[in-house]
Amino acid sequence: MFSFRSIDISKDSKTIITFRRDSYIISFGDMSLFGDNDSYLKKISERLIKYPNGLVLVEIDGEPVGQIELQVKSFENKEVGYVNLFYLISEYRGKGYGAKLIEYVENFFRKYNVDEYQLRVSKTNSRAISFYQKHGFELLRIEEEDTITRFRMQKSLN
């Protein structure tokens, strides 16, 4: 059975670090931009206070197969939803599960009354870019950070 549950740092720290590190390899080719585990766990702990249902593990039959990290941020003087992480392990990519994650994400942001949500994706992650475009995301702009070119994409919830 497919389900979402809030991250429990004491129970899930190893899993979320593994998933987040893998996302860096997929996006950037290595983990050099990840930083250290303690800083990542501290950031997640702080976000869990404000958005407990926005930091979730995706599970199938109780086994973690993905992770979502969501928050509401100010962007150009407007509150927007922001996806920090949208991740499925390789065995579950390309099988329709991503659409279930999109549904969860959009329901979450609707509860916070935002009109749109955004994410950033490495320009070299063509599979993710295609997925986001298929699900209605549009390129908002190109951003350079840490010598990496990222596409900021957005989707309207209206």
Structural class: alpha+beta
Q: Low-confidence spans: pLDDT under 50, at least 5 residues?
A: none
CATH level 1 name: Alpha Beta
Widest β-sheet, arrangement of strands? 1-2-3-4-5-7-6
Mind describing the biggest β-sheet?
Answer: 7 strands, mixed
Compute the number of structural domains. 1
Backbone CA Rg: 15 Å
Task: Using the 3D structure, state the CATH architecture.
Answer: 3-Layer(aba) Sandwich
Q: Fraction of residues in helices? A: 25-40%
List keywords for this structure.
Aminopeptidase; seven-stranded mixed sheet; 37% helix; alpha+beta; 4 helices; 158 residues
Provide a descriptive summary of the structure in words:
The protein has four helices and seven strands. By secondary structure, it is an alpha+beta fold. The protein has a single domain (2-156), classed as Aminopeptidase (3-Layer(aba) Sandwich). A seven-stranded mixed sheet has the order 1-2-3-4-5-7-6, sandwiched between helices. The chain is globular. The mean pLDDT is 93.
Quick synopsis:
With 158 residues, the protein is α+β, with helices and mostly antiparallel strands. Helices cover 37% and strands 37% of the residues. The chain has a seven-stranded mixed sheet with strand order 1-2-3-4-5-7-6, with helices on both faces.
